[in-house]
Every structure is written in C-alpha cells, then in structure tokens.
Design brief:
By secondary structure, the protein is an alpha+beta fold. The protein has helices at about 1-20, 35-50, 55-65, 70-85, 85-100, 105-115, 120-130, 140-155; strands at about 160-170, 185, 190-195, 200-215, 225-235, 245-255, 260-265, 265-275, 275-295, 295-310, 320-330, 335-350, 360-375, 380-395, 400-415, 420-435, 440-455. About 25% of the residues lie in helices and about 45% in strands. The strands form two sheets. The protein has a 15-stranded antiparallel beta sheet that branches. A two-stranded antiparallel ribbon has the order 2-3. It comes from Nitrincola tibetensis.
Length: about 450
C-alpha cells in the first residue's frame, strides 16, 4: 500500500509523458499561431518536464485562447493543473480534450490518473479500458494493463499483505560477556579485581509473521488506516534465558498524497524472555515521509512511550522520547540505494530517586548508514554501519562513575529473490561495544540465514 500510494500516479504519468511526445498527441489547431506562440508552448512543456508546474500552467493559460481546439495544449494544461492539486481545472481541460478527440489514448489515460487521485477508482478503470481499445505501442499497452489491474484492487478498501520469515542465527557470544581472560576492578569495593565469564556460542531458530492491513476511506486527500501486527519467536539451543517471544501491534491514521505521507501511530509491544513476561512498551508518535523527487525521499518520526518491566525489574520502568530523521536516495544506472539516518532517545527512569544504581535513565545518539546495490536481477548486496553513544544518568556505586558506552556495528547481507514473492537472505553482523564499566564491553559476531515469503 505504501509503495502503491506513490508509484501508481508516477507509473501512469511516465506512460503519458512518453506517449505525449509521440505522434499520438500532435500540436495542431484550426487557428493560425505565430512562432512566438509555438515558443511559449515548448517553453511550457519544458517547464512541466522540469517540475515547474505553476510556470507551465501560467504559460498554457496564455496559449489556450490562441489554440483552444488544440488537444496537446488541453492535455498538457491538465497535467500542470493536476500537479498543483487543481483538480477542477484539470477536469475542465481534459473534458475539452475529449470533446476534441473522444478516443485519444493519452487524454483518456490522463483522465484515468485524475480519477485515481480523486479516489474514483471505477471511473479511472473505465477510462483505462477505453484507452486499451485504441491502438497503443506495446510498452504503453503493458503499462496501462498493469495500471488497470492495480486500480481494480484499489476498489476494495481493505488490503492485507502477509510476510512469513523462517531462519537460523549463530551468535558467538550469546551471553554478551568480555571473556574469562579479561579482568576488571570495582573501585567502590576497594578496587577488588574480578574476571569475566567465558563467551558462549549459541544457535537461535526464528519464526516471524507480519500482517500489514490498510483500510482506505476513499476520501479526497488519501485518508486511510495503516494497521500492523508482528509476531516473532526465537528459540535457542544453549542459552534459554535468551528465548524470545515478541508481539507488537499498531494503528496509524494516515493522510497521503503523491508528495508526502503523515501518520499518527498508536502502538504497543510486548516482550517475553524464556516465556516469562519481561517488558511492555506502549505509546504514540508522529511519522512523516516526503518525496523530494523520484530518487530522493526524506523520513522523520517522533515517538513517546512508557516502558513497564515485569517483577522484579519494576524499578526500571521509564518514559522514553525518541526522534529521528533519515534520507534515502537512489543513484547510478542500477539505482544503488543509499541511506543515512540519525536517531536520539531520552529515557527517564520513573523511580530513579529510589534506585540510583539501576541504569535505566540515559541519552542515546545513533548514526546509521547503508548502501544497497543490485548485483543482478535476483541478487542484491547491502552494507551498513552504525555508530551509537549512550550516556547514563545514574552514578554507579560499585564502579564509582557514570556509565558511558559506545557501539560500532558493521552489517553485510545478500538477498536472493527466488520469485516475486519469496527470497533467501544471508547476513553477517559484527558488534564492538565499549564501556567505561568494563563488564559491559563485549565483541560478538552474528550470522543468520532466513527464508522470506510474502503472500
């Protein structure tokens, strides 16, 4: 749904843009026009292609009285109006175009795109069907057929997508320890010297199921409910304390256009370790997604939540405020994908005045980058790096300091598509955590293989 909301208008627009410069949409009129008028027309078309929609529309308005019976002027004028949300003006221009030539395929497809943006899916489908009855280049015909199939699915306001993941994970340091050969001192106990425990290898078996449901209100402006349910279970061969059962759900009222999407999520998450209740997180927030251009997108979010731990960890209950931003870009002939993001979390322990040694209050900064490149039509490689700093508020009595950690993580993965609905992934992750409280320092390597099925 998220991709469809943005891709469908762009798909049809690209179809019409290529078609509008062919012989199917010539610039002709029964009235004579000067070279100056022609220059204005080509300048308006150039402005339209460059995204200067207001300039283009103003020029088409100037040209229209001189060539009112020109199919090209009316269709292009409609496109410029539609790009600015001037739907009534676009409809008027397209009505004129179809009076001039009722079976013109580019005009019919443009009318279909207008009906799509107005959530009039039955009318949009009708216009595409009319266009398909006209002689069309094979590429344009294929795109129009794809568009018709997707428009027909949108006539159903409920959309459900399900993703199943099955996998195995190897962890060379499942207990996150510094190792038995490492020693550290406790200044709060007279600098007594202790050593770490041995690093323990383990295998985890993962089963995950994700449901994405969307309800489209069918209103002008793109209002819908975006709902999600995630279930994850991971069983470990050796360290059963790490056995994890996770469930989360969210409801997000959302408004979306071709350029942006704004949502207000309400969410809850529940975590069980070794099938005993461990943590519940619930809250709300704000998320914003902006399409800067077809190859660059900006995402940001704010999240406020309450963390409630099960007994005997209730003293760790905390309020959390998180904010983040991310820039995604496609570049190069193969559409290599680049991502850079920054996140900040401020967490306050609710009972810190009574439990000053429990490290539940902190400020955390995270910087993350990723490059993803297609090696072939079925194989994609990704490389990511994350740097994180965490500064805790409470002073620790045993270490006689305030804890401060850094984490450097390198992730590499391959994704192989078996078909349009399934894939295999292989991932390796290297973690290097360092802390001024040495027992909290550790190195680890994670290796995972997963099967992913979407249906």
């Amino acid at each position: 749904m998220k991709k469809t909301q943005l891709i469908l208008p762009c798909l049809l627009l690209s179809c019409i843009t290529g078609f509008a410069h062919s012989d199917a949409l010539p610039l002709k009129s029964n009235t004579e026009h000067s070279q100056e008028t022609l220059n204005h027309y080509y300048e308006a078309v150039k402005n339209l292609e460059q995204g200067q929609h207001q300039k283009a529309y103003e020029l088409f308005e100037k040209i229209f009285p001189l060539m009112p019976d020109s199919l090209a002027v009316n269709v292009m004028m409609a496109r410029a109006a539609m790009a600015q949300g001037m739907y009534d003006e676009a409809l008027t221009s397209l009505d004129r175009a179809l009076i001039i030539e009722p079976n013109n395929a580019p005009a019919l497809l443009e009318m279909a795109r207008l009906y799509y943006e107005l959530k009039q899916y039955a009318l949009a489908a009708g216009e595409v069907e009319k266009a398909l009855n006209q002689p069309l280049p094979e590429t344009i015909k294929a795109q129009a057929e794809d568009f018709l199939a997707l428009v027909n699915t949108r006539q159903n306001r409920h959309h459900l997508a399900t993703t199943l993941m099955l996998g195995v994970q190897y962890d060379d340091n499942a207990n996150n320890d510094i190792g038995s050969s490492a020693n550290f001192q406790l200044p709060g106990l007279g600098n007594i010297s202790l050593s770490g425990q041995g690093e323990q290898e383990d295998f985890g078996f993962t089963q995950a199921l994700r449901f994405d449901h969307t309800y489209d209100f069918g209103l002008r402006g793109g209002w819908y409910l975006d709902n999600q349910l995630v279930l994850l279970n991971r069983n470990h061969k050796n360290v059963h304390n790490n056995d994890l059962f996770y469930i989360s759900g969210s409801i997000t009222p959302t408004v979306a256009t071709d350029k942006y999407k704004l949502g207000i999520p309400f969410f809850t998450e529940n975590i069980m370790l070794d099938y005993d209740q461990y943590l519940n997180v619930s809250g709300t927030g704000l998320q914003y997604h902006r399409v800067i251009n077809p190859r660059v997108q900006f995402l940001s979010y704010y999240r406020a939540s309450l963390l409630k731990y099960a007994s005997p960890r209730q003293n760790r209950d905390a309020w959390s405020n998180q904010i983040g931003a991310e820039l995604q870009a496609l570049f190069g002939p193969k559409s290599t994908r680049g991502v850079i993001g920054v996140d900040f979390e401020h967490r306050d322990q609710r009972n810190s005045h009574r439990h000053t040694s429990d490290p539940a209050s902190y400020e955390m900064w995270t910087l993350r980058t990723e490059l993803s490149h297609p090696l072939s039509q079925t194989l994609r490689a990704s490389l990511g790096f994350t740097y994180q700093e965490t500064d805790y508020k409470q002073r620790d009595v045993l270490f006689a300091n305030t804890r401060s950690d850094t984490l450097k993580r390198l992730d590499a993965s391959l994704l192989y598509s078996l078909d349009s609905n399934s894939a295999l992934s292989f991932a390796v992750s290297e973690h290097r955590r360092r802390s001024n409280q040495k027992p909290n320092s550790y190195d680890k390597t994670l290796v995972s293989i997963n099967y992913i099925l979407r249906f």
